[in-house]
Amino acid sequence: PPLDTLLNLDEIEAAATTQISKKCWAYYFSASDDLHTKALNNLAYRNILLRPRVFVDVTTASTSTTLLGHPVSTPLYVSPAAMARLAHPDGEAGIARGISRFGAMQLVSHNASMSPEQIVADAAPGQLFGWQLYVQTNRAKSEAMLARIARMPDRYKCVVLTLDAPVPSKREDDERAGIEARLVMESARAAEEQQQQQEEKKKEGEKPDSNAGVGKQLFFGTAADLTWETTLPWLRRHTDLPIVLKGIQTHEDAYLAARYARRHPGTVRAIILSNHGGRSLDTSPPAVHTLLEIRKYCPEVFDAVEVWVDGGIRRGTDIVKALCLGAKAVGVGRAALWGLGAGGWKGVDRTFEILHAEIQTCMKMMGAKDLSELGPRFINTRMVERD
Ligand code: FNR
Questions:
Q1: Which of 187, 267, 153, 212 is nearest to 24 (CA)?
Q2: Does ligand 1 lie within 6 Å of residue 130's CB atom?
Q3: Ligand 1 atom closest to residue 312's alpha carbon, by position in its atom list
Q4: Which of 55, 147, 222, 256 is least enclosed, having the fewest CB within 10 Å?
Q5: Under DSSP, is residue 249 helix (H, G, I), strand (E, B) or coil?
Q6: From the CB of 162, is ligand 1 less than 6 Å away?
Q7: Whose CA is nearest to atom 24 of ligand 1?
Q8: Cα 74 off chain centre by
Q9: Basic and acidic residues: which segments have biased composition (predicted)?
Q10: How much of the chain exceeds pLDDT 70, in percent?
Q11: Cα 45 to Cα 9: distance, rounded to the nearest angstrom
């Protein structure tokens, strides 16, 4: 269907589903175990109500803000998600092109299907990126990647360290699709490089399981021994960029991140409350619950680090609710991929157009002219805090 006939993110997902391969669908759609957390991610927003105010001149509403000190035109960003070229040859560079009108930051996955250099090569001037790291058991490989990222300081403004996936999860849709590593790797432009890594791993005596789903294939080589004490000092030695910790799911860890940030200025600058789109630990909490916990037990976290959230965003109202509860920015993972699947870079553009318009409508309906006005006074959380 023509993109302008698609009116919301569900319709874009449905359109993408008819156009991408079954294997791609299984990888993108899948989440761990019974998909409870994936469903709850969105349901949690539906159970938070808005408290609109009237008699406010809302002729215009601005969505401008800053992320890590950089001006951006929208609080919406692209979460790191692997293998965009499975959906469309435009790949991660197509996502960059698709969001270029909206001034959003793009976080590039460690397992992107294009190299970090290729992704930024044709990006619009001023387009900002972050690079996401899965620390490898062979640290030298991670260090080499960090060195490559450091060579593009105009583009890559942060390193996002993902912490919520220390081991692969059970994504049954993905495993059922049973993609062979060879096929996945061939579909990516980074094929050669990936191939080399596989060869090296073989030489090192490690054996990838060629019958696992894409998730498990990509996970191969990822370290499970990260700690506050060892990993952050190591990372600091290998990057000067602000560090963003992704996958914080409790107020305790948010507190520890904020404490670390205060004790080591210029290291951890933001945390992302995320459960990996329900793809890691099933029945782990939606980001918005963690936001509420932080508000209750350690609100000082919001002063020490920027708090970003992702997971389950389908509507502008979801985004505004997260911002009202203290989030500085809100990410979409699958939505960008579905946009790509529905129509390449133009599908991403359409996805962001819809979300941007919905954010503005919501702000105006609520009587908020500026993001800085958003706060808990606009929110009723009785339905999620019943007990
Ligand atoms: C992801 N996500 C992810 N996160 C990460 O840190 N590194 C990665 O490589 C990936 N890869 C990835 C692939 C696919 C197909 C998906 C759907 C997700 C998680 C992602 O960054 C984000 O946390 C979630 O996608 C947010 O949830 P929604 O927006 O998909 O509901």
A1: 187
A2: no
A3: 31
A4: 55
A5: coil
A6: yes
A7: 277
A8: 15
A9: 198-209
A10: 91
A11: 15
Are the C-beta atoms of 349 and 98 separated by less than 8 Å? yes
- The Cα angle at residue 78 between residues 72 and 81, in degrees rounded to 5: 155
Q: Is the CB of 32 under 6 A from ligand 1?
A: no
What tokens were used for 48? Answer: 């938070």
C-alpha span between 333 and 274 (Å, rounded): 11
* Complex-level ipTM: 0.99
Distance CA 152, CA 147 (A): 9
| pLDDT (0 to 100) of residue 353 | 98
Ligand 1, atom 10: closest residue by C-alpha: 81
Query: pTM of whole model > 0.80?
Result: yes
Token pair, residue 97, equals 């092109």
| DSSP-derived secondary structure letter, 46 | H
- The residues annotated with a catalytic role in the active site are 134, 164, 276
User: In this predicted model, which residue has the larger pLDDT, 279 or 177?
Assistant: 279
Query: Residue 116 corresponds to which amino acid?
Result: P
CA distance 106 to 122: 14
The letter for the amino acid at 92 is E
What are 188's two structure tokens? 């990516």
Nearest-atom index, ligand 1, CA of 42: 31
Tokens of 215: 């998730």
- pLDDT above 90: residue 260: yes
